[in-house]
Amino acid sequence: MNNQDTIIALSTPQGSGAIGVIRLSGPDAIALTNSVFAGKDLEQQASHTLHFGLIKDGEQLIDEVVAGLFVAPKSYTKENVVEISCHGSNYIIQQIINLLVAKGARAAKPGEFTLRAFLNGAFDLSQAEAVADLIASNSKASHDVAMQQMRGGFATELKGLREQLIHFASMIELELDFAEEDVEFANREQLKNLVNRISVVLRRLIGSFEMGNVIKNGVPIVIAGKPNVGKSTLLNALLNEERAIVSDIAGTTRDTIEDELTIGGVVFRFIDTAGIRDTADIIEALGVERTLEKMKLAKLIIYMADASQTIAEIEEQVKGLKQLQIPYLIIVNKADLIDADRRKALESMDAVLISARDKVGIEELKVTLLEQVNLHHINTDETLVTNVRHVEALKQTENALQRVMDNVDNPVTSDFLAMDIKQALHYLGEITGTVTTDDLLENIFTKFCIGK
Ligand code: GDP
């Protein structure tokens, strides 16, 4: 990894826009820009200032631009950073980047600015990951969670606990050094106490992942039901546009239909159910492994029936759903085709009566969907884990700490104890990107000066 060079990339999306922002980071960012900039001497300007000028390739004028200066270490990457706002033409952008590359800048690799920010200690790994989540956030809830994580999130909470654990690790290492003398530096009761406290936090964080994941990736929903009951029509009504193919011929909905809908700040994601839709009978479908796997991805299954069916028929169909142990919602469609008596009969069952074609009952259905997934109480002030890598590391930490608890009262297993604590530290450290072994060694030496 070469951090001594100066990298350059377009930081706004590809394609024409009113402006494009080209970013440079590295020791020569300001000097390089200055070498093609006509207006004033950028190297003599203060940090956090904007400067109008011309970008010129020799005598040829490329564009009128505004250069924003961030002098190290007061920048995103903690290096010298220049942001050149130019007119958003692909041609201009390419010309400016080519020119600066010719002067000595290097085209940045994906994520390299944020990588540098992390390597230069601007934030920890979990915060760097949150930057990506923030950019990808598409609802209020996912934005709130990413923002919270970027500003420190649960990593801060873990850091304190981790430091206390490092202390115990050093004590136990010491015991191992003095193994002959049978001394106990690490108080076992205090250790148990700390492990318990950490475990409580770990369990809460691991438990929050289900919600965190749903917020980040959307609530996965499957719409199931026999062909021609109106599943595609409902999806269209929900999405309020004609995206899926609607047809009278049973089983024609073949294309992958995966779409997103935001209700009350929560993203609902309709997962690809072409296989399920095509299957003649949901009960039969339950026998099909592939279909089952897909159904299992859902947090909620919408089972659609036709109002011309009897209650007994509908109940017979949903019997198989119960085995899946995934919450489901029965929707009876084509309410426009039935008379008042039949409507009354259907209303007696636990189902939502709609007419997808006439868009009747859709708003009520949206409210029911929100209630069903139980997300209306989202409290994004609470720390939520949204990242699979983090939740895996948390689980590994929990396992290692469980082993610590299993061994803590056994005097002959100090080595195991030390190993398991180290593992727990390693996994906790993985979340924030800390190098565990260095930490541990440093901690021992600075506190005890054993080598003296
Ligand atoms: P799918 O196979 O379950 O996806 O069903 P489609 O959405 O393709 O709909 C099948 C047929 O039922 C189409 O002709 C729709 O126009 C019709 N349909 C859908 N919803 C309604 C409704 O609420 N009332 C009536 N009368 N027809 C509907």
UniProtKB/TrEMBL annotation:
Its cofactor is K(+). Pfam families: MMR_HSR1 (PF01926), MnmE_helical (PF12631), TrmE_N (PF10396). One of its GO terms (biological process) is tRNA methylation. It comes from Pedobacter endophyticus. The keyword ATP-binding does not apply. GO terms for cellular component: cytosol. GO terms for molecular function: GTP binding; GTPase activity; identical protein binding; metal ion binding. This is tRNA modification GTPase MnmE. The keyword Membrane does not apply. It is an enzyme of class 3 (hydrolase). Keywords: Cytoplasm, GTP-binding, Hydrolase, Magnesium, Metal-binding, Nucleotide-binding, Potassium, tRNA processing. Mg(2+) binds at residues 232, 253. Binds 1 potassium ion per subunit. K(+) binds at residues 228, 247, 249, 252.
